[in-house]
């Protein structure tokens, strides 16, 4: 570990899977980590696992008031926010997402609300705080990393036909790029990480289906199946750190070969 996040405050949304793996790595690198999650038990357990300088708050990230409360709590605890990793999101299949001719309006709204509105609210609240910062040693005020998906640009016809989810992840790319352009001159960077199928609680349906996992093993040959959450940590820490200080407005794909096969 290099200690490259020493004294840096990192806000992470989500408390399992990708979010948990990255939070632990940030803490090991000296970061002060604030966890925001809808599930209090998961957030509390993750903070206890990290130990040291960490804190958490349960929140509905689609609620403007809850997001403002989280950001204020993070500022109150640590004094600033240097980096944000927007991981929290859902598959809206259980709400009616699916193929266009079958999906419901509730499914569409659930995908957009949980995946796009939540990231918009977190980005807005944290950018407002970052603009108040004096630039750091890198000459920058902060960095945001948003969670996309390989499905936004490389959809498949079978097994993953949730069109609302795909649209939500495409919206995240567009939102992130437009934010990155506007705030570059203010020293704030914004990027997107776009994974393939990762072994997280959200993908339990796929993981429990042999036909789907046979497909994924062929689609993600580098992983020979689902990608493990820790396999995204290296890319995330690079994009959140000053190592990537010349990188903004980019979508970095970590897909085990999905887009190649």
List the helices and strands and how they pair.
Elements: E1 9-13, H1 17-28, E2 32-37, H2 40-50, E3 54-58, H3 64-78, E4 83-86, H4 105-130, E5 142-147, H5 163-183, E6 188-195, H6 204-207, H7 210-219, H8 233-240, E7 251-254
Parallel strand pairs: 1-2, 1-4, 2-3, 4-5, 5-6, 6-7
Description:
The chain is an alpha/beta fold and 261 residues long. It has one domain (9-200, 230-253): 3-Layer(aba) Sandwich (Rossmann fold). The protein is built from eight helices and seven strands. It has helices at 17-28, 40-50, 64-78, 105-130, 163-183, 204-207, 210-219, 233-240; strands at residues 9-13, 32-37, 54-58, 83-86, 142-147, 188-195, 251-254. Helix 2 (40-50) links the parallel strand 2 and strand 3. The radius of gyration is 18 Å and the shape is globular. The two termini are 34 Å apart.
């Amino acid at each position: 570990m290099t200690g490259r996040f020493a004294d840096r405050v990192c806000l992470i949304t989500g408390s399992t899977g990708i979010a948990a793996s990255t939070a632990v790595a940030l803490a090991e690198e000296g970061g002060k980590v604030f966890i925001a999650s809808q599930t209090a038990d998961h957030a509390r357990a993750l903070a206890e696992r990290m130990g040291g300088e960490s804190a958490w708050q349960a929140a509905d990230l689609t609620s403007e008031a809850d997001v403002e409360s989280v950001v204020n709590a993070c500022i109150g605890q640590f004094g600033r926010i240097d980096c944000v990793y927007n991981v929290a999101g859902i598959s809206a299949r259980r709400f009616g997402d699916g193929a266009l001719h079958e999906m419901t309006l509730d499914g569409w709204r659930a995908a957009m609300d949980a995946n796009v509105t939540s990231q918009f609210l977190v980005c807005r609240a944290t950018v407002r705080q970052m603009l108040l910062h004096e630039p750091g040693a890198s000459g920058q005020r902060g960095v945001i990393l948003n969670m996309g998906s390989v499905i936004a640009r490389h959809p498949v016809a079978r097994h993953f036909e949730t069109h609302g989810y795909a649209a939500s992840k495409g919206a995240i790319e567009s939102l992130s790029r437009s934010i990155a352009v506007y705030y570059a001159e203010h020293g704030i960077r914004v990027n997107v990480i776009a994974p393939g199928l990762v072994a997280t609680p959200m993908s339990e349906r796929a993981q429990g289906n042999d036909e789907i996992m046979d497909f994924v093993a062929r689609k993600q040959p580098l992983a020979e199946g689902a990608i493990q959450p820790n396999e995204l940590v290296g890319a995330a820490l690079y994009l959140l750190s000053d190592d990537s200080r010349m990188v903004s407005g980019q979508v970095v794909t970590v897909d085990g070969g999905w887009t190649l096969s």
